[in-house]
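Q: I'm writing up a methods section and want to include an example of the input and output format. Could you take the sequence below and give the corresponding predicted structure tokens, formatted cleanly so I can copy it straight into the document?
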Amino acid sequence: MFKSLIFFARYFLFWLLYFAVDRFIFMFIFHIKLRNIPLSQKLVAYYHALRLDFSTAAYISIIPLLVYTFWYFTSREKIKFNWVRIYNAILIVLFSIISVINFNIYREWGSKVNSRAIEFAIRTPNESLASGASSPIFLTLFVLAILLAVGFYLNFVLIKREIRFSKTPALAKFAIVILVLGLNFLLIRGVSHAPNSQSMAFYSTLQILNHASLNTEWNLASSILASSKAKKNPYLYQDQKMADLEVENLYKVEKDSTTSILKTTRPNVVIFILESFTADLTKALGNEDGVTPTLDTLAKNGVSFSQIYATGNRTDKGLIGSLAGFPTLGVASIVSWPEKMQKIPAISQKLHQNGYQTSFYYGGESEFDNYKAFILGHQYKKLTDRNTFDKKDMNSKWGAYDGLVFNRQLADAKESQQPFFSTILSLTNHEPFELPVNYKFGSANNVQRFKSTAFYTDSCIGSYLSEAKKQPWYKNTLFIFVADHGHLLPKGDHEIYEPQRYHIPLILYGDVIKDDFKGKIVDKTGSQQDLSATLLAQLKIDSKDFKWSKNLLNPYSKHFAYFSWDNGFGFINDRHAVTFDNVGKSVLYNNKPEDAKQTNQILNSGKAYIQSTYQHFINL
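A: Here is the clean output for your methods example:
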């Protein structure tokens, strides 16, 4: 009997070795980020990985164990288990594909492959492929080949084709089976009081080591299961009433006032939401020369907000944050629940109710990430997306280039009744960074391509404004420029949990701005969520429905910003910034660690914010 169980010992060894190889490749690919870390710390990752590696192997072993149990209670002396090699081969292919996807997603998102990435791929496969087009193809294929080769070799060497049974009393058989199945269950769950979770793999203050230790497949499965639980708040840090009170105090103002910067309260409004326009691209905020000359000029001649942060790291989050003033939910995204998304307010609704003609322009698929559900559900009366452009104009993997989209809005504005409200969502500055013109900064690598596509979009803004100035509606129009989110590039040294990754420009521009405020820089810390309340206050429209948005031009507003990524959050005020990992339960970034009191206050505000936000989402 115990000789037959050696089969499962070899089976577990097979998967532990496979996961170790996968982990080694992960560390090799990101060796630059790990180069200053001692070898001993890197090796410790393999130890802390064992718990979830064993758990994953135990899950995989359920089917072979159940089949083994069935045959064990028959009179057979041996059984063919060659089918397990086939079973393993299928999993090897699947896990190898998941691994290479994980490497490329981690390079871009700073987090491991999760349910969000799978939903992205299933719902919008064409956009998924376009987004992944900037990934290193040869490295991806090479890594895939290695994983497959190692997996199939170990499968051939370690997995035997048959199992032999020795004669064993029935009572002993029952005892052995219960023992084996019980042990497998313990490996799945974990042997401590707390069941297995991602936290079991976390051990370092360096996030990349924790991610190296974290089993990719276990994390993905856990993420998929968690994504289906929209009725349970995963961020319960304190009593809910205390969390809500903390957030209420953040938005409480001594006086509901605003500094009026506009010559009229009924201007046309055009919002440009710019794909991946991190502050690092600009001269004014990122000290980058020549990439965004138009935006830098607009900042000098308009009202520029220098300390604005994106609420998340993806376009769907930036869209909701900018247009609805709604914060991100950490691991979840409200766009995945259209029925809840429809219940949050949006600028377009308010302006439509106040007599504005509303329109939305996007060169890509508006169905992507439920954009269309948001747009059409929030009183945008005209939607222009890739389906309205000629096929000859679909030269980008994402759709129509920004120049075509901007020109379409210009043409339509001539026929629009005033006042009108238009939103333009750009897309050219997105992976794989394609252009219909020459690459200003070259195309040899992603940094050059990224800067070139940003320069192209910036030049399209310049061309748009030059043409708009010829139109009669121009003098009565407020133009707003804000990024959907930040980006790793062009500097390449901001981790997903660092505030600079979320630093974005926000610029108000146009003849409609009072001369006294042209060139003004507002250095108060704020979020793209605050655009809603700030704009509506200038238009003398009530914004009380936008409970997560504050008026940046109210002298009494508190100065803070919140952001989150897949499973962490950051909270910032004018002096202090702290980011926190919800899985490892640890501070990842703190620019003033010596100020323990202020750190605790910032951390408490951030925890209350994400808890209260998620509870609000549940209650919608």
